[in-house]
Design a protein that fits this description.
Blueprint (H helix, E strand, L loop, with lengths): L2 E5 L4 H12 L3 E5 L8 H12 L4 E4 L6 H10 L4 E4 L8 H4 L1 H21 L4 E7 L23 H20 L3 E6 L2 E2 L8 H11 L2 E4 L6 E2 L2 E2 H12 L23 E6 L5 E2 H12 L4 E4 L15 H7 L7 H15 L3
Parallel strand pairs: 1-2, 1-4, 2-3, 4-5, 5-6, 6-11, 7-10, 8-13
Antiparallel strand pairs: 9-12
Helix pairs in contact: 1-2, 1-8, 3-5, 5-6, 7-9, 9-11
């Protein structure tokens, strides 16, 4: 039994991770600011389920608030910190850039400072497949250079990786960054494709299909994401003795720092994704084909060799299984 701080605990991944860790006996200190980026009632419903478990202590604070975050660390004792709090979304960053600076940069700095002064044993933090930006060599590997982001959201996630590496190097804080690939499943985010498509199709509304449907995504089911997070939590990184400054490997370091992809390692065509959803909803979608949106990329595909080698896990939930579980949850939750 350990004390684990999870930021963004009312969010999609934070909720599922908190629930799984509570079930195994850990004590969870959950943090969330319950902002209105998407339906606050959905976040409150997740929190309600967590609060029924016991050993769950919720703090309604914003990690970008230095005073509140310092108090959180000073008044509690944590063995592990998992930072999932962030302003998410690529398209939203085009219109609201400062939200990303406040949450993803200022907020993450406050978390790093808390870990520094309280000697946290392991900081695990969410990065994103978005950091691969303009890269086209597939599958995306943590050993590739990722210096060409195409959205501010991606840039802030790359910045998080650099910031964590700096703290690992300067203060010997073990840090593990996790690049998530298109997470989906029950209790998912309403701003993501599966949720948007399901809502629109059931209402008989048109769905927007970008890049005229010529998109591929490495859709990763939420249970696989959670298993990957928990396994990497248990593996505290040490410095790589073979790391060389003459030929620097972006995926590892001389410092106690590691990056992993967590993806299904099996990209799916967007049109197949939509057809599968139509099958389980029992309704055809009215499609509005549109060009590629600014900040978006045509394909994602995760190389998970490092994850499999180090923690013995490879995500593998088929898209068909994941979609039907989401549809069943959606119909139940919204009584459709």
């Amino acid at each position: 039994m350990r004390n684990i701080l999870i930021t963004g605990t009312a969010g999609f991944i934070g909720f599922h991770l908190s629930m799984k860790l509570l079930e195994r006996g850990d004590t969870i200190f959950g943090v969330d600011n319950l902002n209105s980026y998407y339906d606050v009632n959905l976040k409150k419903a997740r929190l309600s389920l967590l609060e029924k478990q016991g050993r769950f202590h919720f703090h309604a604070i914003n990690i970008s608030d230095q005073r509140q975050t310092e108090s959180l660390f000073n008044e509690n004792s944590f063995d592990i910190v998992v930072n999932l709090a962030a302003q998410a979304g690529v398209r939203y960053s085009l219109e609201n850039p400062r939200a990303y600076i406040d949450s993803n940069l200022v907020g993450f700095t406050n978390i790093l400072e808390g870990c520094r002064y309280k000697n946290i044993k392991h900081l695990v933090f969410a990065s994103s497949s978005s950091v691969y930006g303009a890269n086209t060599q597939m599958p995306f590997s943590v050993h590739q250079n990722v210096d060409h982001p195409v959205s501010l959201y991606a840039a802030t996630k790359k910045a998080n990786e650099l910031m964590a590496h700096t703290y690992a190097s300067l203060y010997n804080i073990p840090c593990t960054g996790l690049r998530f690939f298109t997470v989906y499943g029950p209790w998912g985010r309403p701003d993501m494709a599966l949720f948007l498509f399901t809502k629109a199709i059931l209402r008989g509304e048109t769905i927007d299909v970008f890049n005229h449907g010529k998109m591929r995504r490495d859709f990763t089911y939420i249970d696989d994401i959670i298993e990957g997070v928990i396994r990497t939590m248990e593996r505290i990184p040490g410095g790589d003795p073979d790391w060389s400054g003459d030929n620097p490997d972006p995926g590892t370091s001389f410092a106690p720092y590691k990056i992993y992809n967590i993806g299904n390692n099996n990209p799916v065509d967007l049109m197949h994704f939509i057809e599968t959803l139509e099958k389980y909803l029992g309704k055809k979608a009215e499609k509005n084909f549109l060009p590629m949106q600014p900040g978006d990329v045509p394909a994602t595909y995760a190389d998970v060799d490092d994850l499999t080698r180090d923690v013995g896990f490879k995500p593998d939930t088929p898209i068909e299984d994941g979609i039907i579980r989401f549809v069943e949850w959606y119909r139940s939750y919204y009584n459709v």
